[in-house]
Design brief:
Elements lengths: L8 E4 L5 E10 L5 H20 L5 E8 L4 E8 L2 H9 L4 H14 L7 E10 L8 E2 L6 H5 L1 E3 L7 H6 L3 H10 L1
Antiparallel strand pairs: 1-6, 1-7, 2-4, 2-5, 3-4
Length: about 180
């Protein structure tokens, strides 16, 4: 009744570079709920604030678990500039939480009960491809939309070779 539509074989309707942020936490001591719980709740609050303000640049997210200790979120952003702007905006929760963590470390009060990490990637057009078989929009397709596979090519080689109109024109002009 409320299921997302399944569209057969599709690919992401992405043009240009893709910005991906992997961000997560690892529970080092399960009994330290006051430490890792704060990190987890803060992440959910940050995501809720970003969902209310699409202009900040978060396009989509996928929450995953790697183990009973490790949780992470794959985030797709409009641009690295918007990602940086969000991370450095003083009124945003991320900035305040990062300041709190730095203060705890300086004061010797970071006890290692929870680990935090992130990896950020800017993936140039032509360096990614995607295929979804009988899936609703997920991952890159949830961030940028999805199109029938034939629009980008039935083979991975063809999807990697796809260039958006603006990128194709730029490549032609450079020649």
């Amino acid at each position: 009744m409320f299921a997302k539509p399944v569209l057969g074989r599709t690919t992401a309707d992405t043009e240009g570079d893709v910005v991906v942020l992997l961000i997560g936490m690892r529970i080092n001591h399960f009994w330290a709920v006051h430490e890792w719980g704060l990190v987890m709740v803060s992440m959910f609050r940050m995501l809720a604030a970003l969902a209310k303000d699409p202009g900040r640049g978060l396009l989509s997210k996928v929450m995953l678990t790697a183990s009973p200790r490790t949780y992470y979120i794959v985030q797709y952003w409009e641009s690295k500039e918007k990602l940086y702007a969000y991370a450095h905006t003083p009124e945003m929760l991320h900035h305040r939480m990062w300041a709190l963590l730095n203060r705890k470390e300086r004061e010797g009060k970071a006890y290692g009960h929870v680990g935090i990490w992130h990896e950020a990637y800017v993936v140039p057009e032509g360096s990614y491809e995607a295929i979804y078989g009988d899936m609703p929009a997920f991952g890159l397709a949830a961030a940028h939309g999805q199109v029938p596979l034939e629009r980008r090519g039935r083979n991975a080689k063809d999807r990697f070779a796809y260039r958006s109109k603006g990128r194709a024109e730029a490549v032609e002009e450079a020649r």
